[in-house]
Specification:
Radius of gyration: 21 Å
Distance between the termini: 63 Å
Bound molecules: the ligand Nc1nc2c(CCNCC3CCCC3)c3[nH]c(NCCc4ccccc4)nc3cc2c(=O)[nH]1
Number of helices: 16
Strand content: 15-25%
Structural class: alpha/beta
Oligomer: single chain
Strand order of the largest sheet: 4-14-13-12-11-10
Largest sheet: 6 strands, parallel
Length: about 375
Amino acid sequence: SEKTTEQAATTKPFSFKLLKTEGMARRGEITTPHGKVRTPAFMPVGTQATVKAMYPQQVRDLGADVVLGNTYHLMLRPTAERIAKLGGLHKFMGWDHTILTDSGGFQVMSLSGLRKMTEEGVTFSSHHDGSKHFMSPERSVEIQGLLGSDIQMQLDECIALPAERSEVERAMQLSLRWAERSRNQFESMGGPQKGQGLYGIVQGGDVPDLRIESAQRLGELPMEGYSVGGLAVGEPQAVMLKMLEITTPAMPNDKPRYLMGVGTPEDILESVARGIDQFDCVMPTRAGRHGLAYTRFGKVNLKNARHSEDPRPLDEESQCEAASKYSRAYLHHLVRVNEGLGAMLLTWNNLAYYQYLMQGIRDAIDEGRFEEFRQQTKEDWARGDL
Ligand SMILES: Nc1nc2c(CCNCC3CCCC3)c3[nH]c(NCCc4ccccc4)nc3cc2c(=O)[nH]1
């Protein structure tokens, strides 16, 4: 029968095209039911169905192809059932491009009160009102399906570092068993037929053989992509980078690799060089709300009194008005008197800079000059803010 455009679009299978590589750096393109994702990609965080202090169109105009939502926050408020009743998360928040959701395990462990972790799942109390909740691998995938998420995460257990090997191994093995249960639930809900993707999450802490075992055994499951979890949890940057050098070669080469929770511009640049395609971090948005600006020449803390009479904008060559149109003195004032416009302008500037960096990385890999781009960018940052 003649499929409508809409139906044809949503039944295209999830896919990842590897377009170019330079060393371990990769340039690719993911196709989801809501469009394409150019990789390497930075994915702004929209925890409670909004990228804080930004309009969706503003986020899109900066070049973001995907934003993050969160199972933990949305299952508590307004609940996944209510969002589903209202047409799903895309419609609810007015974002008509790709949405990736985390499974909620990380947030339960880092945000919620009293919790009990068993083979079955995790019981926890809401950090809002103390109400009791339960999340299993199956329930997490069900919630992400209700939200209409294009890229879903398995439920996993992420532990903080440093940790005993026995503890790292226990959490890694549990996460592997939960990966299989998540996959079964995802397939029983027809995820693949809707063109959605489910990612497995590699764990294993800072223990090389556990990282390799986790990556290899996850790779045997037919996941649409694979995340590197359990990092950016307190370990030094050198340890994180070392673990990437060990882990990414053990992950499927033809599927997207998502490093969760990372990171600063330098973390991102160094992780692209070690085989990562997708990133998310609250840094640019959270820092913006705290007066910190990311620019081509490093960070500028607008709280600092040295900016109080500086008439220069953050970066007059920037395409983003937040960087080119307002003086540092004005931004300093807004931050000092805690005016909402301060958070809005600095969030806008920071997301603009992150997307500018990602576009530079993608162009550099396309043109076979990523190594040179990486060195030049690090020199620019080191110059500090002129
Ligand atoms: N499922 C899962 N999620 C992880 C996350 C959350 C990623 N952002 C989710 C978004 C969805 C909505 C909320 C966030 C992580 N975030 C970090 N580090 C953040 C470090 C950081 C902390 C504060 C400021 C800056 C960086 N490590 C992470 C590891 C895992 C993991 O193993 N499993």
